[in-house]
Amino acid sequence: MQDLHTLLERSVSQLGFELVDMELSNRGKLIRLFVDKPEGITIDDCVLVSNHLSNLLAVETSVDYDRLEVSSPGIDRVLKKIDDFERFSGQRAQIKVRMAMQLPDAKEPRKKFLGLLRGVEQGDVLIECEEVHYRIAFSNIDKARLAPEF
């Protein structure tokens, strides 16, 4: 799967897009890709990427799949790369950590953080929750996504 991810990421990048995430169904018959670009993604962009990758997969790989889906990551997009936390600084996000963090003045260790991203510093993600600033090691982040308010 890593080879497939690398191939798709390189191809999507050459088209001027970012591969945000990739999902494979349990049986591998569905490949679902989430792509983006700084100014946002359109349906025409998704069609362009889908057509390009369909041709690429037919020629370059022996991947057996029935469907290829290409879509926007949505307004609650996942944050996977350290650059994502810098790019979306100032926006509301939810972070779940692998190892619970014992914080000063807290009785229980904390695993979930919901607040405003404040950037990245020395490999740590900065987030402000209820006017308290936290540093979370990027390596300790299990899952993170934008969490816009409606």
TrEMBL record:
CDD domains attached to this UniProt entry: YlxS_C (cd01734)
Protein name: Ribosome maturation factor RimP
Cell compartment(s), UniProt: Cytoplasm
Similarity annotation: Belongs to the RimP family.
Any one biological process term the GO annotation gives: ribosomal small subunit assembly
Keyword Cytoplasm among UniProt keywords: yes
Cited SUPFAM superfamilies: YhbC-like, C-terminal domain, YhbC-like, N-terminal domain
Domain Ribosome maturation factor RimP C-terminal: start-end pairs: 79-150
Domain annotation Ribosome maturation factor RimP N-terminal: ranges: 8-76
Keyword annotations of the record: Cytoplasm, Ribosome biogenesis
GO cellular component: cytosol
Keyword Cytoplasm assigned: yes
Free-text function comment from the UniProt entry: Required for maturation of 30S ribosomal subunits.
Organism ancestry: Bacteria, Pseudomonadati, Pseudomonadota, Betaproteobacteria, Nitrosomonadales
